[in-house]
Inverse folding.
């Protein structure tokens, strides 16, 4: 049973460029969330996707956008990259439920460096 | 908004000894979940233990146990018989138990505690 998988593992981009990060959720999971983890910090919630729609968003600018596909996989897009966007981007998946107690599983992350 | 505070940036423990990591949180909610996640150098967040706020009994998972003090909004993690493989960043996290109007909620993390295990 594959867990949450993310790609690419590492990438380097230049300021102003655009980047796309990809995530496949754990088998059977239908909800995908993205988190940004800056160096030395805890992860910060970016947004969550369910049924191919963004249903909750953290305090991140519109430069951060995403998509969820019918197979529940997801992409995170960041436009007009800034140096401050350098971080580890974590994807998390879970099974939607009436309460929030379902276990959340994380991928190993995509490390983005903006130069 | 909920906040989670970990006041110990770094901790160290001798192998086979016991160590306690501290976490406090702030919320006006009464129904929520608290978590401890471990993040080794591989960067993957691994769930260590989970506590449901409406349960008074402290959660335990093998060598890991918590001391949950709801009134004090404190949630510490005790690691017994520490092993070299326990060395990692440990994050305390909060999640509301009640879904918001969108049907979603998210995890709020502390800034982490780096645990070093000394052989």
């Amino acid at each position: 049973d594959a867990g949450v998988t993310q790609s690419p593992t590492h990438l380097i981009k230049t300021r102003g460029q655009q980047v796309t990060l990809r995530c496949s959720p754990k088998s059977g999971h239908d909800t995908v969330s993205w988190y940004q983890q800056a160096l030395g910090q805890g992860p910060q919630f970016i947004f969550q996707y369910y049924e191919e729609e963004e249903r909750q968003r953290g305090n991140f600018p519109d430069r951060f956008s995403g998509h969820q596909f019918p197979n529940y996989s997801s992409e995170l897009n960041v436009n007009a990259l800034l140096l401050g966007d350098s971080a580890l981007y974590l994807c998390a998946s879970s099974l939607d439920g009436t309460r929030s107690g379902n276990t959340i599983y994380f991928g190993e992350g995509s490390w983005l460096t903006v130069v | 908004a909920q906040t989670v505070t970990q006041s110990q940036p770094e901790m160290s423990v001798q192998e086979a000894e016991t160590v306690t990591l501290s976490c406090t949180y702030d919320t006006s909610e009464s129904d929520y979940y608290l978590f401890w996640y471990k993040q080794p150098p591989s960067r993957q967040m691994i769930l260590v233990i989970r506590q449901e706020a409406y349960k008074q009994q402290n959660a335990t998972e093998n060598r890991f146990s918590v001391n949950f003090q709801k009134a004090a909004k404190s949630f510490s993690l005790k690691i017994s018989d520490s092993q070299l493989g326990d060395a990692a960043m440990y994050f305390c996290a909060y999640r509301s138990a009640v879904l918001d109007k969108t049907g979603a909620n998210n995890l709020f993390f502390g800034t982490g505690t780096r645990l070093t295990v000394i052989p």
In short: Chain A has a mean pLDDT of 92.
